[in-house]
Write a structure and sequence with these properties.
transcription; mainly alpha; elongated; 9 helices; Tetracycline Repressor, domain 2; 191 residues; 77% helix
Length: 191
């Protein structure tokens, strides 16, 4: 694939990603993706012969990798697990506030839409969330937690973050994220 083809594919993925985050799977149509990306219809089926699901999975995998990279970057200079999770919440809070509550977690809206209806997209969402959990657990072990405790606390922290994002978006308020940030120390306290 040439440079132009790669750029077109990237535009399609980025357009889908933006729409998925704001509107979920059901609210993201291929015509909207074409309009957002500026790509011709023929390019969509050239780059994604499997149609919407293939494009959506590529968009979610890209978004998941970006958040995973951000998580790794935040972890590199975090002094402890509490600070790491608080920085993650700050990252999502900034995204949400700057988008007037149309964005937050790039996976959540699609994940909720397809949980019981689309196995292919559901598997991608599950894989992305699991990768974030593993990254958190790995970092928690660096901060001195036993692997089993790190694994459990990573799921708890991810659940706290995703729940706060959902509530913040539903209420169009950053208050749930601020409360989640304040409770991280209690959630992750050493026993």
């Amino acid at each position: 694939m040439g440079t132009k083809g790669t750029a077109t594919r990237s535009r399609l993925i980025e357009g889908a990603r933006e729409l998925l985050e704001a509107h979920g799977y059901a609210g993201t149509g291929l015509n909207q993706v074409l309009a957002a990306s500026g790509a011709p219809r023929g390019s969509l089926y050239f780059h994604f012969p499997g149609g919407k699901d293939e494009l959506v999975t590529a968009a979610l995998e890209t978004a998941g990798a970006d958040v995973g990279a951000a998580l790794a970057g935040l972890a590199d200079d975090a002094p402890d697990a509490v600070a790491l999770v608080q920085r993650m919440i700050d990252l999502f809070t900034t995204r949400m506030v700057e988008s007037d509550f149309t964005k937050g977690c790039p996976i959540a809206a699609a994940a909720v839409d397809v949980a019981a209806t689309n196995d292919r997209v559901h598997e991608v969402c599950t894989r992305v969330y699991s990768s974030w959990q593993r990254e958190l657990a790995a970092r928690f072990t660096v901060f001195g937690r036993a692997p089993e405790a790190a694994d459990a606390q990573a799921w708890s922290a991810l659940s706290l973050i995703e729940g706060a994002i959902l509530l913040a978006r539903a209420t169009r308020s950053r208050a749930p994220l601020d409360r989640a940030r304040a409770s991280v120390a209690l959630l992750l306290k050493d026993d």
